[in-house]
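*Target chain*
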Amino acid sequence: MEETAVTDIDILVLENTKLDDVIPDWFWVTFSRASFLQASRNRLRGSLPANLKHISADHIYLGSNLLTGQVPQLPMNISHLNLSSNLLSGPLPSDLKAPLLEELLLANNQISGSIPPSMCQLIGLKRLDLSGNKITGNLEQMQCWKESDNTSSMTNINSGDKFGSNMLSLALNHNELSGEFPQFLQSASQLLFLDLSYNRFFGSLPKWLPERMPNLQILRLRSNIFHGHIPKNIIYLGKLHFLDVAHNNISGSIPDSLANFKAMTVIAQNSEDYIFEESIQVITKDQQRDYTFEIYNQVVNLDFSCNKLTGHIPEQIHLLIGLTNLNLSSNKFSGTIPELIGDLKQLESLDLSYNELSGEIPPSLSALTSLSHLNISYNNLSGTIPSGSQLQALDDQIYIYVGNPGLCGPPLLKNCSTNGTQQSVYEDGSHMGSLYLGMSIGFVIGLWTVFCTLMMKRTWMMAYFRIIDNLYDKAYVHVAISWSRLMRKNQDAE
């Protein structure tokens, strides 16, 4: 078939059709006039042309294949490009010129090097996903982003001609990026999704987050080197329903007014204001799970684990009734577990382990009917473990409470009455010892009194031994007669 016979095809959809072949060179010429190319989720191999500027397509989807080589020069008309989950390597193109680009998805490849300064020319980007690569560099050293950082007026910061000003989603996680919290995000007033996890970002969390990114729904910063205190005004991110700052060096206390996390105070429902097919790894129930947006939009998560946080767990935590995952483990929290924690009916996973919590476990804990994972081990908790069918159905029940010597009752082998019983035994033992000691002393004193009396009165002594002799004679005669009768009976029987 001649190539000219198919050059006028506008839309080509070959998604998930089990294609297993190398993309031929003629493909890019034959379909150069197509506006929509979709061939994701196959086993397409080979490398892409070094330059795709001659391609007319504004949508190219080749994700989830086996493509190798480098990311090519982008078509001028491209608006959506998905090359995620391939085997692409090498650096990004140094000259990224695609003024209409709204979606650039290069996640889960082997791309290395730094992000080129020309990235900042892509001011129309709504979704950028570079996660799961080997990208390095300090974001502060990127000159064009510094230009955005240096803007001081609110008019300029919020204008639509800055990198990030149109962005709804930014995923840079699982790379080797460094630097402080990206300042260019002060322009990202529309941002809904931000994932900087598993990098080497440092410094403190900025106080401008609620003001400059008021629409943020998901903020994931785990496994970096952030330090300092949690900004008190972070609670004014009213649309935030997923906050993960685990595995950093953050200190101080959790803000008290948690009820200002408005999106966490209601039961999560499907939302249609964010339609991208994002995916994210959620650490819950001691497991790492991958969620697509349709699912994790209903995940309400608060994870402060593995930091240096101190103080009490805020009482207002019970107002976050939408929470499905709460992890405060491996910090230095003190005080008691909030009494009304049982109000969190949606909670599926609760981890308070490795802290310095004390007091009794609130009885309301047994009211968490959705709970499938619980860990309150290695604290200073005491008293009786609450009973309840949900708690008794949890796995590894002994592990849940280990490291709290003061706890007692099922499922632990330590009976809550053990301490009282042991005390009674010890008290009884003490009384019995006193009794035996008194009896021994009385016996010795009584015996010596008799002997001394007998030795002092000769007539009494003679009378005493005469009585003993008479008793002996009577006993001897009685035994002799009984023995004689027994022998006589035996002889008659024979």
Remarks:
- The two ends are 129 Å apart (CA to CA).
- Residues 438-493 form one domain.
